[in-house]
């Protein structure tokens, strides 16, 4: 197809998080014109850690991302420990050497580093094919006309497009326009706090020597009381200069009792952290003595929030508009949310190649939903079932892990496109 005479689509992306920037990259690579509208005045993402596994790294490699820009740490498996006894084991990912040979071996990094790399690929004037996306901060979207493919900003400005993509998170402005009603996330009874810890101080605490044992991988430190579980998820980022700590616990404000109140130890931390983790073994509780790293989002460096999950939605698409990522299927952060959003983004890049007409948008959005909604809904349900005893799991933890990371979203979307649209673009690349 002669790209010099083919009209690109005008595409509006609402939200400049991982999903929104990834969608902009994929659609830019298809040769489309992309505008991104972000409500915050600048990047205000909390500088927490994130993991990327085979499914998302396969896509990022195809987009030309530079792994070194993530200042990452290897993620070769998982270290599992009982939070009370300290007993446990380490498991190395199968086929690790093959993944390394393909440069899709998993990693952990700081979220801000990933966002900066995605932003470079989306809006940078670099070797990435397609025109650079335009990114507008401090541009809050207040409404969306799904049939016209337009949004209205808080300033009153209307922006028309061929396609509107709502990648604006759990409090999405676009979602009510898709569904015709307001649907909010359900509480799960689970809360967490997360922070970055100064890993250069680990040597000052001999009880933390376990951080340099086992394999190069996150530590899942868990205990279960009845139907409730409590957990630390700990891993290095920023070339091991920082430790990312996420602590999950059942919310005492929702259920009337915090499970971390058995003994008086750890009182010095109770003013810094929500609740006491005093019945965790001392080798793990000592993590809370490490200094935190302040961020723009929190002067103390500690953020706490309840962890909701979206109910399964009837649809993700309507007219010329759609939702993706957390706006469509926000779930618990234990289930590879970033990877799923990146998969959805590359699927859009394949389904909307240069030459797609405005009249074809609705049909291709239905194709996107067919390819992605079932997977997003399943991951949502399975993640909730792992913390809510009233929900039934349909697969084991191992089966879920394989399901999450084994998918080749590029190949899946190209095969679908070839079958249904008589085309198989190479994941959106244009000359």
TrEMBL record:
Keywords of the record: FAD, Flavoprotein, Membrane, Monooxygenase, Oxidoreductase, Transmembrane, Transmembrane helix
InterPro entries documented for this protein: FAD-bd, FAD-dep_Monooxygenase_BioMet, FAD/NAD-bd_sf
Family affiliation: Belongs to the paxM FAD-dependent monooxygenase family.
Organism annotation: Mycena chlorophos (Agaric fungus)
Keyword Flavoprotein: yes
Transmembrane segments annotated in the record for this chain: 6-27
KW Mitochondrion (keyword) present: no
Organism phylogeny: Eukaryota, Fungi, Dikarya, Basidiomycota, Agaricomycotina
MF terms (GO), sorted A to Z: FAD binding; monooxygenase activity
Protein name: FAD/NAD(P)-binding domain-containing protein
Superkingdom in the source lineage: Eukaryota
Residue ranges of domain FAD-binding in the record: 11-376
């Amino acid at each position: 197809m002669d790209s010099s005479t083919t009209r690109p689509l005008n595409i509006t992306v609402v939200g400049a998080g991982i999903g929104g920037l990834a969608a902009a990259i994929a659609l830019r690579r298809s040769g489309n014109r992309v505008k991104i509208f972000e409500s915050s005045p600048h990047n205000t993402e909390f500088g927490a850690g994130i993991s990327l596994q085979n499914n998302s790294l396969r896509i990022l490699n195809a987009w030309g991302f530079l792994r070194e820009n993530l200042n990452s740490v290897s993620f070769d498996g998982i270290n599992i420990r009982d939070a009370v006894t300290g007993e446990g084991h380490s498991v190395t990912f199968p086929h690790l050497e093959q993944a390394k040979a393909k440069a899709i071996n998993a990693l952990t990094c700081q979220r801000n580093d990933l966002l900066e790399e995605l932003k470079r690929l989306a809006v940078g004037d670099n070797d990435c094919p397609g025109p650079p996306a335009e990114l507008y901060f401090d541009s809050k979207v207040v409404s969306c006309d799904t049939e016209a493919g337009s949004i209205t900003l808080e300033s009153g400005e209307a922006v028309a497009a061929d396609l509107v993509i709502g990648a604006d998170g759990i409090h999405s402005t676009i979602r009510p326009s898709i569904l015709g009603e307001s649907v909010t996330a359900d509480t799960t009874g689970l809360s967490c706090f997360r922070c970055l810890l100064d890993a250069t101080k680990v040597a000052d605490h001999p009880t933390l020597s376990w951080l340099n044992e086992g394999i190069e991988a996150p530590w899942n430190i868990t205990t279960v009381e009845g139907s409730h579980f409590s957990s630390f998820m700990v891993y290095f980022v920023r070339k091991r200069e920082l430790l990312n700590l996420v602590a999950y616990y059942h919310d005492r404000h929702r259920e009337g009792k915090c499970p971390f109140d058995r003994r008086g130890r750890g009182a010095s931390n109770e003013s810094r952290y929500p609740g006491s983790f005093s019945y965790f073994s001392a080798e793990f509780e000592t993590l809370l003595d490490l200094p935190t790293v302040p961020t723009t989002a929190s002067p103390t460096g500690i953020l706490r929030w309840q962890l909701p999950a979206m109910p399964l939605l009837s649809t993700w698409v309507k007219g010329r508009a759609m939702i993706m990522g957390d706006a469509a299927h926000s779930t618990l952060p234990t289930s590879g949310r970033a990877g799923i959003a990146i998969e959805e983004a590359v699927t859009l890049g394949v389904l909307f190649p240069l030459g797609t007409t405005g009249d074809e948008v609705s049909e291709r959005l239905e194709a996107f939903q067919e390819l992605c909604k079932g997977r997003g809904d399943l991951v949502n349900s399975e993640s909730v079932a792992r913390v809510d005893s009233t929900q039934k799991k349909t697969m084991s933890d191992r089966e879920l892990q394989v399901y999450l990371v084994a998918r080749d979203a590029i190949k899946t979307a190209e095969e679908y496109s070839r079958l249904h649209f008589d085309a198989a673009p190479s994941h959106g690349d244009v000359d």
